[in-house]
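Figure 2 data, in text form.
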Amino acid sequence: MCLFSPGRKRTRLPDTASAIAVQAVAGKWTDSVLKPKMSPEPQSSLPVSPEMFAVDVFSELDAETIARRWHSVNVILRMSVLGGLDLHLDAALNLLCDLAGEIVRFQRGAVYFWEEDQETMHVRVTRNIDDPDPETMTRANVLNFWCAKTGRPLLMRRGIHAEVDSLLSGLGGESALVIPLFVRNRVVGSMQLFGGAKDFSAEDAQLLWTLSLVAENLLTRDYANEALLHYAFTDYLTSLKTRGYFEQQLELELKRAERRHSPVSLLMIDIDHFKQLNDKYGHQAGDQVLRDVASLLVKDMREIDTVARYGGEEFVIVLPETTHQGAMLVANRLRRSVETAPFFAGSPDQRTTVTISIGVAVYSRDARFKRDLLEASDTALYEAKTRGRNRVVSYSEIARRKEVS
C-alpha cells in the first residue's frame, strides 16, 4: 500500500518487513519503546548530529502495521479527503495537529512554519502550551534546523545529549517526535510533539511522516494563498502592515485581552510638518523619509507587536500586554530615536531633521471598545500636536485634567 506522492523517492531497506526501524549513531531502536545503547549520562562533550535522531522512513506501510494500526491509516485517508478543502494556513495546520493527535498520544505540541517576510520559522499552532515562553520556543527552533537538514522525522529522548536534555526540560517533555512539513518538496516547517519517555515509537514516526506527505498538497495551496494575503496586507512603500491588517489585529488583541484581563496599548504616530518637507524637497524625498521612519518604528519591537501605516504620514502600533507606563517608555524611546536620526533629503549632501508626535491610549484604562480606543489615541495625538509637536501625550493625562477642571 503506497500512500506517498508518486514522484517522491525514498530509500528502502532490502527487507520491507523491517521498514519501521531507526538507525542512530548512539544506538538502535527496533521496538515501540526507545532503548538506545548508550551510557547513562548525557554525552555533553560530543557535538549534536541530527542524524543521531533521524528515523528511516519508507514509501510503504508493511502489512503488520496496517493491520495493527488500521485506525491510524483511516486518519491518513481522512487527511487525503480533507485535502480538497480551501482553508487558511493556520486552520490547515490546526487540522494537521488534530489528526496527529488521533495517531499518537502527546502531552504538548507546537507547529512551526516558514514566514517569508522574516525569513525564519515561527510558531503558528500550539497544544497545551498556554503561555509559551519566547526563549524556550526560540530554542525549539533548532529542531526545525535539524528537520530541514535531514528531511526526515526525528525521535529523541532525555539522556542522549545535554543540549537535547535542556530543550526537553524547557518544554516539559521526556521525549520528542518531530515531523517535517513540506511545500513543493521543500521543508518549510515542523510539527513538534512532546511526551513521556515511552510515548513515541519509530512506527509513530512512520505514520506521522505519511500524514505529513499526504497533507503536502493542502499546505502548498494554503501557503500560496497566505502569500497573496501577505502582499494584500503589506504597504508597498514602507513594507509595514496596512490599515486593514491593523484593524483586524487590533480586534483580535482586544478580544484576547478581554479573556486574559490584560492591557493593550495603542500608539498613534504622526510625522511633524511632513507637508512642508514634501514641498521643500519633493515627494521622492518624502517617500524616503516615510521608509526611514518606518524602519525606526519596527526596530527592537517584539514579535507580538503590530506596526502599521495608518494613512499618509500616520502610523499605529499595537502593544499587547503593555501597561500605560510601558507604553509611555516605548513611545518616548521612539520619539527620541527619530529626533536624533539623520535623514537624507534627496541626496547624501542634503540632511534634514524629522520629529514625530505620539498619542497613547490603553485598553481598558482609557477605553473598553475598539472605536473608543482609536478615538482616545487620536485625541492624545491631536493634543501632542497642539502643544508644539515632538512630544508624547497619553489620553489618561487629558482625562485627569478634565476631571480637575
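Caption note: The longest strand covers residues 186-195.
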